[in-house]
């Protein structure tokens, strides 16, 4: 693992709007509150589970760090450690707290327990975990409703498919992944009810060789002409391009790897959420709840479309995107599904199955039970 710190002059990112004005959703009762404002300066540390050059999940979080530094300038001191094993997280979090950092972020649910242990020894420090599984006195959890963006990608996939066979390479069967699969399938269903989403699991977040092998098997065995993914590398998008089928990535714009066959991808704008959390700490308003904003809050979206996506497909997806941004996005995404009346807390923590009936799961011996 490696650690680095950044000054305000290190980065040059685009400005994004804050969640505060929109009201990023807090879905659990706040159990902790830091009520001493910090004045002008604030410090934040990030503990990454992956590498900043993974081109996916950790890359997206790192862009969020860079955007926060760019927005706040010299007011913010930022440091990160990458490629951290869960066994090392508690010690690193304790070190950041001892060094005087005001807020510490961990970027995977696997870090929840060790960061909670660290938080117990530093009650004046705010701790936050991406897709954290619970909260504590000074431990919050954060994520975004990227299933809304995933729904739009499913919408696009349903419009471009000619075989009505769509492949989905999934990572691990946990709630946040299952949200996305259901959202994608709902987007397909709403435009092409006869299409099938063929689902295969890798049970890995980052294994480019296995992702490529799984994607190729979907092309060879299921006649898919669209591939989607929930992994941290662009291997599935590359495989799609090599097979002359449409490819959709995840986390970041992967168009560079999709070439002429790139469709679009659900992407994160983590700087929006990080700015909201950091400013709450800085102002003394931070609470240890769950932050779960929707696409209208700016934390997630879809990337630009590939060069060969038909204009009518682009127009249709953009029109549906406007509906999500201006209306009740969850009501649109979850229409006629069991999730239609679920609360935000239930959607974040309790999705444990595939409920949209156009998905054809292909079981393997290595698939774990949903966590």
Can you describe what's shown?
This protein is an alpha/beta fold. It has two domains: 2-142 and 269-297, Rossmann fold (3-Layer(aba) Sandwich); 146-266 and 303-361, 3-Layer(aba) Sandwich (Rossmann fold), CATH 3.40.50. Helices cover 37% and strands 16% of the residues. It contains twelve helices and 14 strands. It has helices spanning 57-72, 86-98, 112-120, 146-160, 175-189, 208-222, 235-242, 255-258, 270-283, 311-326, 329-333, 344-349; strands at residues 2-6, 42-47, 76-82, 103-106, 126-130, 139-142, 165-170, 196-201, 226-229, 246-247, 266-268, 290-291, 300-302, 359-361. Strands 1-3-2-4-5-6-12 form a seven-stranded mixed β-sheet, sandwiched between helices. Strands 10-9-7-8-14 form a five-stranded parallel β-sheet, with helices on both faces. The longest helix is centred in the first third of the chain and has 16 residues, at 57-72. The model is unreliable at 5-35 and 364-371 (pLDDT under 50).
């Amino acid at each position: 693992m490696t650690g680095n710190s950044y000054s305000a002059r290190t980065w040059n990112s685009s400005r994004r709007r804050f969640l505060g004005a929109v009201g990023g959703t807090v879905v659990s009762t706040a159990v902790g509150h830091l009520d001493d404002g910090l004045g002008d300066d604030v410090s934040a540390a990030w503990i990454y589970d992956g590498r900043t050059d993974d081109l996916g999940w950790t890359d997206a979080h790192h862009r969020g760090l860079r955007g926060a530094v760019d927005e706040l300038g010299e007011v913010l001191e930022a440091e990160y450690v990458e490629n951290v094993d869960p066994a090392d997280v508690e010690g690193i979090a304790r070190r950041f707290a001892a060094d005087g950092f005001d807020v510490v972020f961990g970027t995977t649910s696997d870090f929840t327990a060790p960061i909670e242990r660290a938080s117990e020894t530093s009650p004046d420090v705010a701790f936050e975990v991406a897709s954290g599984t619970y909260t504590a006195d000074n431990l919050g959890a954060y994520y975004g409703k990227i299933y809304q963006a995933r729904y739009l990608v499913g919408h696009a996939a349903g419009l471009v498919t000619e075989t009505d066979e769509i492949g989905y390479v999934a990572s691990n069967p946990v709630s946040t992944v299952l949200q996305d699969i259901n959202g994608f399938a709902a987007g397909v269903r709403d435009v092409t009810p006869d299409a099938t989403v063929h689902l295969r699991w890798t049970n890995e977040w980052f294994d480019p060789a296995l992702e490529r092998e799984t994607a190729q098997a979907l092309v060879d065995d299921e006649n898919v002409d669209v591939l989607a993914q929930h992994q941290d590398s662009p291997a599935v998008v590359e495989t799609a391009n090599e097979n002359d089928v449409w490819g959709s990535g995840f986390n970041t714009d992967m168009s560079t790897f999709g070439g002429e066959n790139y469709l679009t991808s659900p992407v994160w704008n983590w700087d929006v959420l990080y700015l909201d959390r950091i400013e709450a700490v800085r102002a003394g308003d931070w609470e240890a709840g769950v932050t779960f904003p929707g696409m209208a809050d700016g934390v997630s979206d879809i990337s630009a479309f590939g060069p060969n996506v038909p204009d009518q497909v682009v127009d249709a997806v953009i029109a549906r995107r406007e509906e999500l941004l201006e209306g009740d996005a969850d009501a649109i995404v979850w229409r006629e599904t069991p999730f239609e009346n679920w609360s935000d807390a239930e959607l974040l923590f309790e999705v444990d199955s595939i409920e949209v009936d156009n998905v054809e799961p292909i079981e393997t011996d290595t698939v774990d039970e949903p966590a």
